[in-house]
Amino acid sequence: MSAHIFDDSQRAAATEYSALLKDLHICEGQLAFFERTTQFQAGWIEWLQVQHTVLNRLRFGTPDIFDIPPQHKQAEEIIASSLSLGASFSRERLEQVRTLRNRIRIQLSVVANFMTQNDGRTNIAIAEASRRIAFETKRDSDAMKTIAALTMVFLPATFVATLFGMVFFTVDSGRSSKLRVNPYWWVYLAATIPLTMLTVGAWLGWLRWVRWKRLQDEENFGLKEKSQ
To answer: What's the sign of the alpha-carbon dihedral 108, 110, 116, 119?
Structure first.
């Protein structure tokens, strides 16, 4: 984690952050269990201290300290010292467990912040890629506009060249070089106009079918959402 803080060139992958976050959650759960256990032990030792004091009062009453037999006095001091030492150890262990749990919580927060930063960097990278794609699309659109403009410029000339290159128009090779029109030139119009109308009609019909299909899909999707 220190490498992530002090060296931006060493960045962990998202899967590594997820694994670390999972391990930290497991450690926090175990420390929570240890905290409850240690807290119970500390409370149990305090209860034993209280019961030991009550037991001594029941056994000896409240006599002068010099009236207590030496062996009883020594045993009572040993038991009291052991209970006091156990209580100190339990309290110290409880503080250590709580400190570790707080450190785990801080590390969880740090890892969550790192994951948020990585998500932010990913979103920035996606936005940059989208901007580049939009720029490339705009450039392609400009190129297509140029091609369309050139096509519109050369289309009349192409049409005229194609028309005069058909068999309906012939030029005499003599001195007069007259342009003669075939009497069946109307066959070209009779075939071209219906085919053009048929093509345009098929295209318009396909557009209407696509629009109708889209409306049907939207209605079906809306019915599914209402049923859910």
So the answer is: negative
